[in-house]
């Protein structure tokens, strides 16, 4: 089986293609890559999330790394991806290996590779890494060293990645002001690896943190997948509404994405959250610098760029594109529609906890509710409303769907003039007024994703329906 990295890492169905044998091949290829590039002496950190078998898969990867003479830091508990990535940087390791499938359904697991800067691996790194893994697959070469022996020999060290990560997050904001603000916050950790992080940061003051779904459960009950989108957050929305709290925050399975519910119980779209976070950086904190967004991100970012005279860079979907662009341009913030956002001063990696804390800081600094802040944002940008649908398809349909989409050439969609096409990642129809429709295949799951942004919720739905007609699904 060929191991291929998608939008962020290799993912597969547990016991089907995601097996200990294939994981071992992936780890050995990673070890070979580190040795070939002269980085192996700096070591690697290995972490894992709360999914089925994640700890055992992580132990297997660590055994292979130490067998190759690579100093290995092995996390002693499940932890969020940004916590592990931050420890990679703070320990000056060469790389990180994280066993997680992020927001995928429970039958999935995965392998994320992080270079020494702590973000997603660039396309060039992934290409070379896949080459090394492929050569191992052909040669069937891998070996493992017992962890107790590795520990006694000094090659292996156990580490708790959480305390130093939370200290780092606390250093990024006025945490005392949030603790003492008297807010009531409900946190939904979606049974994932970031459970307890918000409480660990904020307890001890007048602000109250209520947690739901904070116990580990790899079946992620009550949701299709641990992704912080509206259909998966019905329980959080109900509790926010019933308890009249200030805000609801949700993190995905590995803690690198954020979902937000406002004080009225309304789910705030992920693109609006990122626009708010950019508004916070530019207007409230008075900072300046480029903004980076994926092709699926809102045109509100372009409007903010114009308003505050900062450049905006657009990339294909995935932090393997966003992160390197962020580093190259020393960007103020980077974000994608999936709810993953990164900020200058931290690692160039999606971080659900940092994003949530920045939203809280915005509320405290302005003294405004989230619904009031969204109104303020729209006075700057104008009305932009987003929606998305995910369509399943049989593998044999992929080619015909792709061909059908590529040959489509409408002059208008939902009554709006088509002004251009962008094929950098799927097919994006550019519409008058800065609105758009995008059709692309997911890089992590067998899904066709259709995204739309219109001047009203109704127009966004009409654009989605037009996208479905174009795809034939």
Q: Can you name the CATH architecture of the largest domain?
A: 3-Layer(aba) Sandwich
Task: Look at the structure and name the CATH superfamily of the largest domain.
Answer: Alpha-D-Glucose-1,6-Bisphosphate, subunit A, domain 3
Alpha-beta classification: alpha/beta
Proportion of helical residues? 25-40%
CATH topology title of the largest domain: Alpha-D-Glucose-1,6-Bisphosphate, Chain A, domain 3
Rg over CA atoms: 22 Å
- The count of strands amounts to 21
Distance between the termini: 29 Å
Low-confidence runs (pLDDT<50, min 5 residues)? none
Strand content: 15-25%
Report the sheet with the most strands, covering strand number, pairing sense and barrel closure: 6 strands, mixed
The largest sheet has its strands arranged as 1-5-4-2-3-6
Helix count, per DSSP? 16
* Count of distinct structural domains: 3
Q: Would you kindly provide a written description of the structure presented here, covering whatever features stand out?
A:
This protein is of the alpha/beta class and 473 residues long. It has three domains: 153 residues, 3-Layer(aba) Sandwich (Alpha-D-Glucose-1,6-Bisphosphate, Chain A, domain 3); 210 residues, Alpha-D-Glucose-1,6-Bisphosphate, subunit A, domain 3 (Alpha-D-Glucose-1,6-Bisphosphate, Chain A, domain 3), CATH 3.40.120; 87 residues, Alpha-D-phosphohexomutase, C-terminal domain (TATA-Binding Protein, 2-Layer Sandwich). The protein contains 16 helices and 21 strands. The strands form four sheets. A six-stranded mixed beta sheet has the order 1-5-4-2-3-6, sandwiched between helices. The protein has a six-stranded antiparallel beta sheet with strand order 16-21-20-19-18-17, covered by helices on one side. Helix 8 links the parallel strand 7 and strand 8. Helix 1 packs parallel to helix 2 and helix 10 crosses helix 13. The relative contact order is 0.11. The model has no long low-confidence stretch (mean pLDDT 94).
